[in-house]
Amino acid sequence: MLKPALLFILALVTTFNLHAAQQPYKRTLKLMGSRFDITVVADNEAQGEAYIDWAVGEITRIEKLISSWDPNSQTSAINANAGKKPVKVDRELIELIQRAIAISKLTDGAFDISYASMDKIWKFDGSMTAMPDAQTITNSVEKVGFQNIVIDSEASTVFLKKEGMKIGFGAIGKGYAADKAKQLLIEKGVSAGIINASGDMNTWGKQTNGNPWKVAITNPLDKNKVFALLPIVNSAVVTSGDYEKYVTFNGTRYAHIIDPRTGYPATGIISATVFAPKAELADALATSVFVIGIEVGLNRINQLPGIECIIVDDQGNIHKSDHIEIEKP
Ligand code: ADP
Ligand code: MG
């Protein structure tokens, strides 16, 4: 017969062992047109794979709702009925659009999901030989304007007032999907993980060694140089800006993110990294900072509690918001 005390110790050891056996499991796959790396902490491989399947299911579900490429998505139905009639959609989509409009208001229209209505006059694949003329640029944003997205919350409908108007979730969708996948896994009892959508990181819990998840911030001008290593504790970090996608005219470098108010591409910034409790907000703000520029961008970010930002300008200089602490790698 085992003594109760011994039994207790045995139980403790068993619990400890079970815990020690937890391992990270990772899967890389293409979702929403981007590379996703999903990492979860689990007791064994079968459990890890099952957890990852849940995350993939959730991201796929959201992609079906918000994709503008899928002609059967609710988003495509809204776009197809622009200037014609309101379209009834899921509550979830209404709320996502409402939050996107709130960010438009916060950024004076620099962020605008109706950017998708722009004429595609800029190409960033090296094929452009001359800058479009001023009139063409002005005309290209004629149909853009979040003020013309009409939501009837009670009827759960969305109406785009202008014919030819479109909305797109390119700057917020990946973040939203990552938040939802994370939320689902937390509800299912998964203790820790990372949803990494092409470098946009969203974490919860800790690494199996007890340390927080860390993200390396590289200088986009020199991908081999990590200039900061930051712990990401139950929060998200999103970087905007593809340093390879730009076009140069008269010595000015134009980035692939276009100011929806003017039709001109953003200038001066190579990358904007935003830290926030939620990936959706980080995603939207990273794109916004790109458009509003270094000074206004940092100013806005400094006014938002719990949100920080690192900007690399086109000279390779690094600019930070007020409360960010960088741990040297
Ligand atoms: P990345 O291309 O690195 O993912 P972002 O997260 O900033 O960069 O998203 C850029 C995408 O956001 C564009 O490809 C486009 O789909 C969309 N977009 C571009 N400009 C705007 C804008 N001003 N407001 C909202 N969405 C935008
Ligand atoms: Mg973004």
From TrEMBL:
Its cofactor is Mg(2+); Mn(2+). The keyword Glycoprotein does not apply. InterPro entries: ApbE, ApbE-like_sf. Keywords: FAD, Flavoprotein, Lipoprotein, Magnesium, Metal-binding, Signal, Transferase. GO terms for molecular function: metal ion binding; transferase activity. Gene3D superfamilies: ApbE-like domains (3.10.520.10). Magnesium. Can also use manganese. Mg(2+) binds at A171, D283, T287. The keyword Phosphoprotein does not apply. Residues 1-20 form the signal peptide. It catalyses: L-threonyl-[protein] + FAD = FMN-L-threonyl-[protein] + AMP + H(+). Pfam families: ApbE (PF02424). Its EC number is 2.7.1.180. It comes from the Bacteria. PANTHER family: FAD:PROTEIN FMN TRANSFERASE, THIAMINE BIOSYNTHESIS LIPOPROTEIN APBE. Belongs to the ApbE family. This is FAD:protein FMN transferase. It comes from Leeuwenhoekiella blandensis (strain CECT 7118 / CCUG 51940 / KCTC 22103 / MED217) (Flavobacterium sp. (strain MED217)).
